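Protein data:
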Amino acid sequence: MLYFSFILLKPISMKKITLLLSSVVAAGFVSAQSMFEDFESYSVGNYMGVVSPAWSTWSGAVGGAEDVQVTATMASSGSNSIFFQTSSSSGGPQDVVVPFGGEYNTGQFLFETDMYVQSGKGAYFNFQANNTVGEIWAMNVQMVQDGNLYVDDGVSLLLTTTYPTATWFTLTIDVNLNTNDWEVLIDGVSQGVVQTDVNQIASIDIFPVNASYAGNDLAGYYCDDVEYNHTPYVVPTLNGGVTQIKDLNGLSSQVILPTVKVRNLGSTTITSFDLDVTYNSTTITENVTGVSIASLDYYEVAFAGSLTLVPGLNDVVATISNVNAGGADDDGSDDTKTVTLNPIVPAPGKVVVGEEGTGTWCGWCPRGAVFMDKMETNYDEFWAGIAVHNGDPMTHLDYDASMGGFISGYPSGLVDRGVDMDPSDFEAEFLNRVQIAPVATITPGADYNASTGVIKVSFTHDFSSAVTGTDYAVAFVMTEDGITGSGSGWPQANYYAGGGSGEMGGYELLPNPVPASSMVYDHVARFIVPGWDGQSGFFPASVSASDVLTATFETTLDPSWDANSMHIIGLLIHEPTGTVDNACKATIAEAVANGYVGVEENNTYVSNFSMYPNPANELVNIKTGEVANENVTLSIFDLSGKQVAEKNYGTLNGTYNLPVNVAMLANGIYSVHIQIGESVTTQKLVVE
């Protein structure tokens, strides 16, 4: 089973409530709408899928590795419970499913269980929306070994709270499916109410895994007194309700354009209504006419008016009125929906870096593209995303090789070069990092000659803290958006095709592989200068608060790149920890507008090296910048690291075009190294 992080919502204590049941099956009470199971009438070692028809597994195979056994090691009540565990990053093999007797999208749904999560371990479960598992995840709940509990919908983190470790606690989820309010309670105390795109529930999937949100891959937890209950909804004649307020993600000071989802909760078709959204004393309105919303259908309204996020707790209130021009409808309890916002206040000048390992050969890597795009859309000015490709035509060999030592697989990545994580976890870590004040803010400047491709870049650091300057290095990265290609290596493998692994930003609707003609690649790392660790020596040993110090770089852009679609990214790297303290991001045009800040030549890192054509099939031209009486050596390596060509040009003085015959090389990707004096720089060469 593939798992995603999803959503958790509203509980009231249903324990001891669900005892009024319409039928009894085996030792547990079961009906189409409710169940209570305390495991007391089973023997230790019994598989639940075998002894109870209310329990099954993801595959439907019961009594084996996927199933869960009754244990008497500990219990919340009585002597028996069930136990889940794993030490695998991919989770399992246990994968237990409890169907809820139908697909519910109206009425009130309650789920509750007692849980005990072992010290140093985590726990996980998700709710499935459809009777057939694996089609649509309604939410994920991840409990991590540090006592944090995360709820998300597979795209956005919806709730972060804590849970008690190494002790029994009651977890309750109370869902008003009419209004799409999902509340999470721990020991009867509300942890928050969230809303989800998938306002439907059909089963719970209990799957031991602890890999998301910096989990340690160890899961171990008991469940006891498991119960659920669904109360049906009686549909009135005319009733419009508000079920979701969307597009609210952002940091304090960011501008948002909300979208509100309304639902026809009556039997009469809705043809018109008014909709207001109020936040921080500002109200925006949409008057909707000419629609035809059938009973129980949804309709989304995208607001043209905007709202500016402000610090502190403030409610966003959406209200539907004047349904079918008839004034009040038959049920006013669902006319208003409230979402409380508390936008994070970013540290001044803070830009967080996300480096994602990806490749067109990787069938799960569309997930990385979706989350990278999401971060760029929601947090553009605070986020610098870099897609580091592996094993495809967009690979930058040095960048890829360096990053490969810090990630465990694909897709995965680093936020400010912290712990290895899945791209779906980027947002949570970003929200932590963006609040941490950097030692310096960075302003990028540039001087770009479009005719020669030579670009000079300055990174001006305005220090707010006194630091040891020799502890910091600077790296210069350029990324490109809108990249397309044809031929081998350009189609994107896509394991989300067909929807069997859930929704993933539209990739579930695309084939496997996605044809190259349908793919556009963004955030692609074109180079990192001088390399992963950056260049030290720009700053003195003693740096005072308020010092302004500049690092400069010079290089030549590959003529095949689109300079209008590129971003300049500067990294300030804290060398003792290897983490990124701060960053900056700008288009070339924005950096040129800021102005290039020149410094003495010995404080400038120069990469005088470009190649064309690239890809090449017979001859490639190596163009150098100004060489000042230095020895020049050219080396070419294949992907395995084997040197396949080398030439020493001796001492050169001036600017040179060095033709290299590559006709003897097999088609593939190579690394071209040019050493000018003591400086070695590298670029990728594709031979076709």
